[in-house]
Design goal:
globular; four-stranded parallel sheet; 4 strands; about 40% helix; single chain; about 140 residues
């Protein structure tokens, strides 16, 4: 069993935002944290999320889209929801010591327009998540 604090990122479909957060925390703090992500449902890994993370030098192409695992949820040190739907519908956490935060980000998968306009939305969300992860790594023990 891992002795590192478990950070569990949750979103609706575990396809974009939670995968991006997972990728950044693994890259920036994987030596200090066990990092996992999941969704209320598994929608599959969004190829645009993979693309914009590759642009940032992080490969999430091998990640899987998973549904929330109650055992992981109740073992987590930090549960961080990245969308309002996941925050509102997160299963009950029986671990009273868990720290639960909500970091709301727009869903880039709902972006419309040209491919470049859609990718711009993915990049905006990616960069906002990266900034939040950098703050987390710098300030959370």
């Amino acid at each position: 069993m891992n002795d590192k604090p478990l950070v569990y990122f949750l979103c609706t479909g575990n396809s974009c935002r939670s995968q991006i957060a997972d990728g950044f925390l693994t890259a920036l703090g994987g030596d200090r944290y066990e990092v996992r992500s999941a969704g209320l449902e598994a929608h599959g890994l969004n190829p645009r999320a993979v693309r914009v993370m590759a642009e940032a030098g992080i490969d999430i192409g091998g990640n899987r889209s998973d549904v929330i695992d109650p055992a992981l949820l109740n073992r987590a040190t930090y549960v961080i929801t990245l969308c309002g739907h996941a925050d509102e519908h997160c299963p009950v956490i029986s671990n009273e010591d868990v720290v639960k935060w909500h970091w709301g980000f727009d869903d880039p998968a709902k972006a419309t327009g040209t491919e470049e306009e859609i990718l711009a939305q993915f990049r905006t969300v990616r960069d906002a998540i990266k900034a939040r992860i950098e703050t987390f790594v710098q300030t959370v023990a």
